[in-house]
# Entry
Amino acid sequence: MTNTMIKNDKRWIGDLLGGSLMVRESRTIAELLLSEPDEATWQQQIINENILQASSTSTANRYARTLRLRLMTLDRGGWKLIADGSESERLQMLLVALMIQSPVVAEFIAEVVNPARQQFKEKLGMNCWSEFVDENLRLHPELAAFSDSSIQKMGNNLIKALAEAGYLDSPRRRNLQNVFLLPDVATALHRLNKAELLPILEGNV
# Structure
């Protein structure tokens, strides 16, 4: 296996281990990014002011790093929707950022969530993530390098994110729900040259 292939595989997973949508923290980071802080101001806000209300400096740094990388996949318009938009706009834009940063999320929705809805299933199976991982081990062999607990955490974060965005009623019950993509979110996807995510988010793929 070449180094390029390994690198591509790592990008497929992205930062899914970092957390679900982390709505409150993401909104705070979006507001901070809109102020165009220099590095000193960033550290002042994250560490000294503890704007993420983290329990420790290391946790604050970890959350800030994860969310900064995730939200940097968007533009100022995306940040504004997260900071000042409606709750639904905020949640949908955060899911978009997660899908861009972690393409595995988009693939899971396209291959697992949407087919289940098209087949009129009421809910996702409890083993849907582990089955998805097993089916993708050949194309993404680096999955085997993660511990069982890390794989499980990725799945938990993904299911929670889908519940936060309204695609599931809760992480525990996993009942499927219809979601209508909001116009400003669709516009943002076109602006970001990510229109290929539209049919996935709308359940048409």
